[in-house]
Amino acid sequence: MAFEKHLIRKYNVPGPRYTSYPTVPYWKSDTFDTDKWLASVATAFTESNDEEGISIYIHLPFCESLCTFCGCHKHITKRHSVESPYVKAVLAEWKSYLRVFGARPRIKELHLGGGTPTFFSPDHLRDLIEGLFEHADPFEAPLYSFEAHPNNTTRAHLEVLHSLGFTRNSFGIQDYDPVVQKAINRIQSFEDVRAVTEMSREVGYQSVSHDLVFGLPHQSESAMQRTIDLTAELRPDRIAFYSYAHVPWIKGTGQRGYDEKDLPSNEGKRKLYEIGKERFLALGYEEIGMDHFALPEDSLAKAYHSCSLHRNFMGYTSGKTRLMVGLGMSSISDSWGGFAQNVKTVAAYENQALKNEIPVFRGHMLSNEDLVIRKHILQLMCQFETSFESEVDRFPDMQTCLEKLDEMEKDGLVQRDGFQLTVTPKGRPFIRNVCMALDLELLRKAPTTKVFSMTV
Prior knowledge:
This protein is α/β, with parallel strands linked by helices. The chain contains 16 helices and 19 strands.
């Protein structure tokens, strides 16, 4: 581990996770124009709806309690009376987008994220999805999925969503160690996880995913081994093995709930990942992109091997579409030519959506330079390689960016053959750093305040 520790010390710096390029802190929101954004949505819809369909992400932000490791946009409440007004607001926003489309959309990919989507009752989830499809159709071989909490997901939730076309779900597990669970305020038993996993398969879900997190407070190597042993018993089709992003300076994360001395060291955190990775590979999972593992028969692994894996604000997906519409509080939409984010409070969101306004409050229209760099970063994040051979794949200051890879090449993290760039197996843990070398926005103006989590 001596050389590995040297690399961790060298490359563990704040950096983006690259769910977009440019990353959100570098969006030019001061020049963002909502009319131009909607025009780009209309263009993307016209050019892609018939050929590939569109993607929909719906943010369902409510949680009954605060998990102190979470950095997501959420609204903590035990009042379930919030469900119906929120569903009405989401469907009102959807109708506003339908007016922009001007034709009946075909939905290829649909994901419910949170927050906790299973905070909502099965009946309200049915109202939401049926309302969505009142003026839309499924695309061929659709990919519909949702995130769920093992403690509040019932058979009724699973049956209702499966009857509406959902074939994949994802359960937030994080860690089975009681000390860790108490620290992050996420207490759930293995028996509950087993029950909802087996119930999902009985109902007919084709893919069940478990989300685990490494680098949490009080997390030990022995506890990580036990968490993975228990995960192996259930053999989920996918495993998202996320690096804990410690960003307590972001208002509302709740990450002040424990002391930083309770977190593993940088080297200790990386050891936890290596323990997981080694075991997952031995169990027959394949490493997919960053932080993900999948069984060979899962659609994510198949997409990786067919070079069709995609990454966007929903994470990794096997169903790339040019247009992704984000509905709900804080959701981000992507027209390929632009990004737009909705307002970040439930009250403001509902107020604007119910007035038939598209409730975006910031965004960014991509330049030609942005589009080229975005392509390279996507290819690196999804396939660990990219090429600058063609003139259309080159951009201003490219040589400066490539020179930033010299040190990584010496360290064995990347290989360059002419204009071909490949991330080595040794370099995969540092994929964010590789992408940072091509990030012209970051190169031109490094942040002066805390913005990003650490890369390792």
